[in-house]
Amino acid sequence: MAEAxxxxxxxxxxxxxxxxxxxxxxxxxxxxxxxALLQAGAQTVFISSRKAAACEAxxxxxxxxxxxxxxxxxxxxxxxxxxxxxxxxxxxxxxARTDHVDVLLANAGATWGEAFDRHPDAAFAKVMDLNVRGVxxxxxxxxxxxxxxxxxxxxxxxxxxxxxxGLGIGTLGKQGTYGYSASxxxxxxxxxxxxxxxxxRGITVNSICPGFFPTKMSNGLLKMSGGAExxxxxxxxxxxxxxxxxxxxxxxLTSRAGAHVNGAAIEIDGGAMWQRGELxxxx
Length: 283
What we know:
Elements: E1 19-23, H1 28-39, E2 44-48, H2 52-63, E3 73-76, H3 84-95, E4 103-106, H4 121-147, E5 156-161, H5 178-198, E6 203-210, H6 219-224, H7 228-234, H8 243-254, E7 265-268
Parallel strand pairs: 1-2, 1-4, 2-3, 4-5, 5-6, 6-7
Helix pairs in contact: 1-8, 3-4, 4-5
């Protein structure tokens, strides 16, 4: 029967030969995603963040992975993604090394925790600039490289790192993350708009929405919220996120397996936001 025929199933999750750019790729979820792309067969993964030393250290760790394809490598391209000038510097560095990009992971992000009455305008603006405006500038500037080899059968991919805080209520109170939560809601909706705009150009745009993953960015909030062990016990799956949870979704969205997924926002939180039958986001 025709339904049993799956075209070239062995390559369904392969990224063999692909070129990727990962912003915020020097640590945390960005570094995990970059590792997944390389180990799934990507040929070149450009690692970007503001600090050159951090990019170099991340690339050294990635290039030392034992199961990479011959010639596969991570390349350091430091830049400040919060400004259009910084995004254009990143584009110039990538364009000097390749004439196309297959995967763009917009992962760079910032947060700020402060009580509502004291929440500074400058902090709110900084978070919105990087988490929303920076993503829009990044996708717009890289669109020509993404279109270069894009096709109906093999579209290029944009993946935005959002958060479950953009789907429900984020952290309130003494360490309220108002700008972060608002920015993640905004960037998810931006992703939906870009999905429809860029789909005809052969580019899919999707968002991932992680819950609690122990990272440098979230560790302070984890501690303030009762600690990793208590939060893990409260999760429907009785644990917090692991690197493999991010890696699997990234490979799915950027491989042939995810070629017809466009405009999605995928929660990766073990179902925590749905427990007790209501949105219950504390991130």
